[in-house]
């Protein structure tokens, strides 16, 4: 019997990368996607041998179709799909531009939905689908309204998708990382001084008093992709140190 196969979008850094490494350690065949030539080249150099790295932009349905065909050709099926690709923008409402608004929704919402649509025929009966959402959907973050809305749309889809895929015993769940030490912070577009201030203020609000690690989120995703979570679907689990 072949090893289970997992696909992780946005798997070249941060939580996606940590999850790829964890699932690889546990015997999965792993495919990760990255959006840029630079990120995918670095991942090919640095990730363990055997992890397949594919360049694909989740905003592009042509890229998504190509990704699905490559997974079908290489592996035939998927047992886990971690829809993790996303971007974060920290912008007050009066400074949000239409192009930036559209980009966030194209990557975080549209891209993940259509990736699931295009790859769902490859999911085996009993497979696991996990969305990355974020605690910002329920906890206000100044300047985070657009990012929270794009991720919150995914969360709103989870119960319906869980019902829709239940006849195939495909489980659909969401994980919400809290304050996690990943590169997404530096890519948010906020000035370094603002990021440092936000990090300090957020750490002070976390009951555990610290940022989490990407590996700690990966452990939860790994559980949801395992047989140990065979009766868990339609759920939203926060990994945020009590935040």
What would you say this structure looks like, in words?
Helix content is 43%, strand content 17%. It is an alpha/beta fold and 243 residues long. The protein has a single domain, classed as NAD(P)-binding Rossmann-like Domain (Rossmann fold, 3-Layer(aba) Sandwich). Helix 1 crosses helix 7, helix 3 packs parallel to helix 4 and helix 4 packs parallel to helix 5. The chain is globular. This is Short-chain dehydrogenase. Pfam families: adh_short_C2. InterPro entries: KR_dom, NAD(P)-bd_dom_sf, SDR_fam. GO terms for molecular function: oxidoreductase activity.
Gyration radius over CA: 17 Å
What strand order characterises the main sheet? 3-2-1-4-5-6-7
The largest β sheet comes out as: 7 strands, parallel
| Low-confidence regions | none
- Tell me the name of the CATH homologous superfamily: NAD(P)-binding Rossmann-like Domain
Q: Let me know the number of strands.
A: 7
- Shape, principal axes of CA atoms: globular
The total of helices stands at 7
User: Which structural class is indicated by helix and strand composition?
Assistant: alpha/beta
CATH class (first level) name: Alpha Beta
The CATH topology label is Rossmann fold
Q: Could you state the order of secondary-structure elements as H and E?
A: EHEHEHEHEHEHHE
User: How many discrete structural domains?
Assistant: 1
Domain Ketoreductase: 4-178
Keywords: Oxidoreductase
GO molecular function: oxidoreductase activity
Family: Belongs to the short-chain dehydrogenases/reductases (SDR) family.
